[in-house]
Amino acid sequence: MKKLLFPLLLFSLRLSAQNAQQIHQKAILIDTHNDVLSNELITKFDLGKRQTEGDFDLVRAKEGGLDAQIFSIWCGENYGKGTAFAFANREIDSLYALIKRNPDKITLVHNSAELKKAVAQKKLAALIGVEGGHMIEDRMDYIDSLAKRGMNYLTLTWNNSTSWATSARDEVTKKDSLPHLGLTDYGKQIVKHLNQLGVMVDVSHVGERTFYDVLATTSKPVIASHSCAWSIDPSRRNLKDDQLKALAKNGGVVCLNFYSGFVDSTYSPKVAVFLHQHKAELDSLTKIYNDGDLANIRLNVMYKTESDKIRPPLSLLIHHIDYIVKLIGVDYVGIGSDFDGAESYPLGLDSVTDYPKITEELLKLNYSEKDIDKILGGNVMRVLKANTGK
Ligand SMILES: [Zn+2]
Questions:
Q1: Prediction pTM value
Q2: Buried residues in 344-372 as b, exposed as e (16+ CB within 10 A)
Q3: Between the chain's N and C termini, which has fewer beta carbons within 10 Å?
Q4: In angstroms, what is the span from residue 163 Cα to ligand 1's centroid?
């Protein structure tokens, strides 16, 4: 009897993995946040071909069953008036160039109807998310211009506040010295203007006060393009239970960020120890790359065994999804990986090829195919359609 049980178990495991692949490939998978365009190191590579560095290219995206990607357009807070908008446009140019070089693999889409058409043509649907209100340089006409070039969402702030909206970082660290808190009247006009243009309002990165001001102002469902559950990991970038409930009431969607620091509350102290142990190398790498985050990514590759040890298990990311589903229902959760934007992800998630593992884990928790479809992309599709009208 025992002799029979083992092959039977192997057979059923293989069957469930096959089942997961089938469900995964059939579903429309939309990832609402990827930083590959803003990663100057990665843009040196031809993303039309398989790469050994970085988290994303068009070959691996296909293998991972990715159907639509909202590419993040981002520049740091050192870019300001006179430079930030121009930089955003340069990044959009680089997306256009990627599409032009790979017309059989990727196409720009503006709404859910075009997204579905791209999926039918077996091309990756590319969308644009502008991550940081500082890139509009306080000008309404710059919003129009970015929308014309394909902007599908505007993240009202990055870590830095604008003159019209306060960020999560600043609301926590500079609360008493901020010239204003939340959205100003001009900020409210911006939200209404985005609603009119059919551009989704992204509340990832904004402070709690701005978050609630947005919900009181917007006439359309909003998106949190890359955030997790605060109750599991109390990072200021994650959403508290009341925020999640308010988001559901608005009909919006929160898309889960894979970054280890937003998934696992024990990651930050562990990574601090790791970086301290390799301080000399980190300093010289930071000089070479002129960027601390890129230096950290490089260091993780050099000391893979050590850096793997501090990565959270994949089950913890799945726990965020399951927690939010139990709190507000299955209609408000999506995927916003932050691939190419962070130095560490849960074990097993190494690049865009690994999305099917999420489907596998959800099946293990007895999620139905219908619910998995919603989480992988159906919910984001609904919010996109509600904003663009088609
Ligand atoms: Zn971000």
A1: 0.93
A2: bbbbebebbbbbbbbbbbbbeeebebebb
A3: N
A4: 19
